[in-house]
Amino acid sequence: MSPKNVVFKKISKDKSVGVYMGRRDFVDHVDHVDPVDGVVLVDPEVLKGKKAYVTLSCTFRYGRDDMDVLGIAFRRDIYVSTRQVYPPLQDRDKGIHTKVQEKLLHKLGPNAYPFFFEFPDNLPCSVGLQPAPNDVGKYCAVDFEVKTFSAENQDAKVRKRSMVGLKIRKVQYAPENPGPAPSVETTRDFMMSDKPLHLEASLDKEVTVIALKQTYYHGEPIKVHVNINNSSNKTVKNIILSVEQVASVVLYSNDSYVKPVTLEDSGDSVGAGEKLQKVYTLLPLLANNRDRLGIALDGKLKHEDTNLASSSVVRDGVLKEVLGIMVSYRVMVKLVVGGDWPLSSVVSEVGVEIPFRLMHPKPEAGDQSEDEMVFEEFKRSYMKGMAEDEEEGNASAGEA
Question: Which domain holds residue 25?
């Protein structure tokens, strides 16, 4: 059996326009971003002289749609680009950029027209903060959408029955160039102790070939090597390790949300004058944080599952203020240190942090030119916890 290439499609309720796309994830390679391509299918009889347009938009939402105050919506359009696809402004063949477009045009017939967008260099990736379990509606997130609509002109009011949109994602994969193996150390001197406490922690993958990479993949265990030389007269009463996610909302404020996404309370102790060398394993997963408010997630396509947000990788020279939500990760190693009697109640902490990246591996590229096309219709009824939108009111061309 030949392999199958899934094509996502969605048709407007009045059947005037439809959008077809061969993929919904578009990769940010840091130095360039995959372009957005697809095909719009029109029905000239239903259009009745109207024009058909396609829009690529990037929107930052920081509140639910029902939280508008005095007509001010809790959203900001970071980027909007609109193209007229029907009647075509150029020869149809000149708008073909990919083999998927060629196959779609051949299959859909003469009323199908290609579209093509290139992302600007400074757009953020798809990411959102997890809402509380009882929250409904939109949440703080960066969303991308390809929308097709029919109207008399680009700025005219658009009936929702004549509009259709497909959510897409702008994603990043783990870089292929290796970096230095992350390792940190610290030495702490104590009062009434002639010698110090030394702590060293490092992240080191077991496979030698990729040991230099400081990037871990989603679902991959993180091994933390801890080396303690306690020359002091204090006692290390406990060793606590965690992975912290730092989500910085940089678009409209400098708010940062620091959330532990996995925690290991080892209970290990190191007496005065003793040493400890041990490897601890941490596994940050969304499955263990589904009820945590404010955890950053990779952009969702609503009817699909997601994972903890991937680390943000930014090209030099790009202003971070326009990148919406920046995500980073670090391993925290904390020693709880107590004194001997009569100072046993005096407790202090010694800790280090090790930054690392948490991302998806880059998938292997395959040749889909000969694959069989399978059309998958995207319906709102697929969305978890959301009913199909039957509203038929008007919307401006720029509304999502």
Answer: 4-171+363-393
| 85 and 196 in a common domain | no
pLDDT at 8 over 80: yes
Distance separating alpha carbons of residues 15 and 11, to the nearest angstrom? 6
φ, ψ of residue 66 to 5 degrees: the values are: -90, 10
pTM over 0.70: yes
- Using CA atoms, how far apart are residues 86 and 112, in angstroms rounded to an integer? 9
The token duo for 109 is 């017939």
For position 280, which CATH number holds? 2.60.40.640
Structure tokens at 73: 């919506």
From residue 322, give the alpha-carbon distance in Å to each of 124, 238, 289, 313, 326: 7, 42, 28, 14, 10
Domain at 45, CATH number: 2.60.40.840
Asked if pLDDT for residue 391 goes beyond 60, the answer is: no
* 361-386 residues labelled b (16+ CB within 10 A) or e (exposed): eeeeeeebeebeeeeeebeeeebeee
Structure token pair of residue 166:
């497909």
User: Which of these, 114, 118, 76, lies nearest to 94 by C-alpha position?
Assistant: 114
